[in-house]
Amino acid sequence: MFKLRHLVPAVALLATTALSACGSSDAGSGAENGVTTLKYQGQVGSVTPAELAAELGYLPNIKLEWVGNTISGPQDIQSVATGQIDFGGAFNGAIVKLVAAKSPIKAVVSYYGSDKDTFGGFFVLDGSPIKGPRDLIGKKIGVNTLGAHSEAVIKEYLQRGGLTKAEIDKVELIVIPPVNTEQSLRQKQIDVGALGGILRDKALERGGIRLLFTDIELLGEFNAGSIVLRDDFIKKNPEAVRTFTTGVGKALDWARETPRDQVIAKFEEIVAKRGRNEDNSALKYFKGFGISAPGGKIADSEFQIWIDWLVREGEVKEGIKPADVFTNEFNDGGSK
User: CATH code at 195?
Assistant: First the structure.
């Protein structure tokens, strides 16, 4: 294991505290007057595919109820598993680990990926002596959460760089909300910061930072994360699940195929309308969700790669299959 530390400001803890008060009996309430309410967590200053789908009218007879924000995929899907919310998303490897632990969840649609525009990068300050994997021994890397995308990519980078387990153990991961990562790097609280998408481009525009490595240079372009629902919710509400899953897939297609300025304008409209007192300045850097598959449909390979990796790492036992983790049964999109 890496050394792990947490530097989470009080503002990030408030959302978690609020969510812990939401009992499982409040979520998944089913349909009322023909409308199914789905509770979820959002992200500060950004728009999720589900929120976009709702705004575009792709979720008829479904109401999304925001209960707070999260910076952690593993926390998000754990909240789904425990019934605090109805859907959430995380890195596919984190989903595999939760399913392997017998959590009653199923991935139903992709929601973020890494490509030439949306890749996850790991940055150092200009002038930093860090040039390669071995230079990270004893250093601090800021990530959004543990046990997810960034940790898996960092570990792969270190292993490919020839570090031993003992040396990898000396690399320290520090949990920092993504919106604070750039500041923490510039203030030298960390040596390396994980930045992706709009936050990466916003930081690069200000200058003074240098790219160390990216996830796509290690793994190529890939769909990285999926939205999950509870098994009991799927069984009880199959048509609502079909509407939701297909609608999210349509929103992903819309964001990919619509001129970028129109997508950004729609995001700005959504953020202004929901009235959460957010800074929307990062929205202008949006370049896509990184999903190339029509309708956000999931491929076996997008989970098999992480099943193999986790088995090799000794984090899950052999025997789990992609079919245990995801289904495209309810996704009617992606036919074109």
Answer: 3.40.190.10
